[in-house]
Amino acid sequence: AAVMLKKRDWDEAELILGYAAGLAPRDAALREASARAASGRGDYAKAAARLREAAALAPSDRSLRLELALVELLGGDPRPALAAVPSTEGEKSALALVLRGLALSKTGDKAGADECFRKASVFRDRPFIAAFSAALAGEEAGPAVPRAIK
């Protein structure tokens, strides 16, 4: 299935993943891969459903919730995306802050979005996300961003 996903053969990947899910119904990775195939086809509702299944099977996996938030945003409704983003209280994840900021922006909460983007713009270990966040916040990228990205 991984080869089919790389080849962007979404239908063949779904066929293989469906068979595999029947053999391993408690495997979160299979649900996540199925979500990627659905996303590739532009079926964000199905992708979100598969990611919710995966998150239920692996509740401690924050990356599944971040991927779910992204898929929900791509699907056009920011409210489920906000619910899917892990809490950003004291957050150490620049990506979670950016996703929350994008969702807040879509709901019309510009101040909340800008706050998230500003917080994400200072991450030294994530220079691309920091530069992207600074641009979204309408600020100059800070010292955390290497000159090559500025």
Structure description:
The protein is mainly alpha-helical and 150 residues long. The chain is 69% helix and 0% strand. Helix 5 runs antiparallel to helix 6 and helix 7 runs antiparallel to helix 8 (110-120). The protein starts with a helix and ends in a 13-residue tail after the last helix. Mean pLDDT is 83; it is low at 141-150.
**Extended strand count:** 0
**Mean pLDDT reading:** 83
Q: What structural class results from the helix and strand content?
A: mainly alpha
Between the first and last Cα atoms, what is the distance in angstroms?
A: 38 Å
Strand count, sense and barrel status of the largest sheet are:
none
β-strand amount: under 5%
Radius of gyration: 17 Å
Brief rundown of the structure:
The protein is mainly α and 150 residues long. It has helices at residues 2-6, 10-23, 28-41, 44-57, 62-75, 78-84, 94-107, 110-120, 127-137.
Features:
150 residues, 69% helix, disordered C terminus
Secondary-structure topology with pairs:
Elements: H1 2-6, H2 10-23, H3 28-41, H4 44-57, H5 62-75, H6 78-84, H7 94-107, H8 110-120, H9 127-137
Helix pairs in contact: 2-3, 3-4, 4-5, 5-6, 5-7, 6-7, 7-8, 8-9
